[in-house]
Amino acid sequence: MKHILVTGGSGFIGTNFIHYVRTHRPDWHVVNLDALTYAGNPANHRHLENDPGYTFIHGSICDAPLLKQMFDTYQFDGVFHFAAESHVDRSIAGPEVFVNTNVTGTFRLLEAGLAHVRKHPDADFRFVHVSTDEVYGSLYPDDPAFTETTPYDPSSPYSASKAASDHFVKAWYRTYGLPVVVTNCSNNYGPFQFPEKLIPLMILNILDKKSLPVYGKGINVRDWLYVADHCDALVRAFENGENGETYNIGGGEEKTNLEVVETICDLMDDKTGNPESSSRERITFVTDRPGHDLRYAINPDKAVEKIGYKASHTFEQALSATIDWYLVNMDWVRSVQTGAYQEWIRSHYESSPS
Ligand code: NAD
Ligand code: TDX
What we know:
Elements: E1 2-7, H1 12-24, E2 28-34, E3 54-58, H2 64-74, E4 78-81, H3 88-93, H4 96-119, E5 126-132, H5 157-176, E6 180-185, E7 188-189, H6 198-207, E8 212-215, E9 221-223, E10 225-226, H7 227-240, E11 246-249, E12 254-256, H8 257-272, E13 283-286, H9 301-307, H10 315-328, H11 330-336, H12 339-349
Parallel strand pairs: 1-2, 1-4, 2-3, 4-5, 5-6, 6-11, 7-10, 8-13
Antiparallel strand pairs: 9-12
The site of thymidine-5'-diphospho-beta-D-xylose has 16 residues, from helix 6 and strand 8.
């Protein structure tokens, strides 16, 4: 049995990853360390409460003594590091916590991993650092997609903090020999995504008959990746990757934000019995995000060739399945729309004129 540390396992991707691993790698014991910020929800794993293959620890990746104790107790074979502050707009409104969690937290985790490897030099250990395509900056419409050798050029406090964390991870490999793999993936979507992000925000605003705030002209392009494909890629990077390497993971589904929102509108009208095209009328163009990257696109060739990755979901099908998940999980939705969530929506969107 392998003991695997998953940080941030109560957030969007971490939750999906733990569910994926409990199904596809049932012999792994997963230890989820999560600070339960506004983005973390322990109820996501309620069905695992009596599962001996799952342990939850409420704590922070910044807490070095806790990390040491956890490594001593579980002698981890691997780390999947998801824990982060992840929302670009929040990073613009309040960057400091992004430095604390994404940079200092990653540093503390690397130190704990290195101390463990030094104590157990024969152990087969690997640290998978889950990062983002945003570290590469912005593309023009005709630029080739990001590869693993594209220079880093982050635009937002969020992407700057992720870029810094990637550099720390690589430095711990080159300087100290810590076995690491870095993955940089594009925009994920799927079940359990916190409704501050574009896709769930639009689904829920349509249900609540609110306006649909599209930044700028809606021409920004993202490369959409279904979260289950991302989880599959991460297991492959852990099992088949090479230490010190980066793998770019993309969905191969480039869309403008307006295309995404219009598709959600049409699917929602169809599924909820709204008159055809009625949701599109709620689209409202609002003040653009400062430093808004125009386009992200991932070239996944290296991951395809070296770790056997292949996205197996199409955008239309997986978006439809995602909407269905939100429609049948309204209890989850309402439970995460707490006071802190309402406060963010009020402060962020009420200052954005149409
Ligand atoms: P999320 O915001 O939904 O979840 C983050 C989780 O980390 C939450 O459960 C939160 O409680 C936890 N956390 C925050 N600070 C912590 C700390 N100090 N100690 C322990 N736990 C802490 O984020 P997500 O969308 O699931 O993203 C997960 C990772 O994937 C992040 O590193 C993010 O940068 C990366 N990523 C996300 C996307 C995307 O589209 N969502 C794309 C590329 C990369
Ligand atoms: O209300 C909105 N209106 C809007 O037009 C919101 C919330 C977003 N947008 C736009 C901004 C982006 O161009 O939609 C696009 C997607 O926005 P987000 O969902 O906030 O994602 P993004 O900023 O692209 O970053 C996401 O993908 C990369 C994740 O949040 C990051 O954690 C990940 O690293």
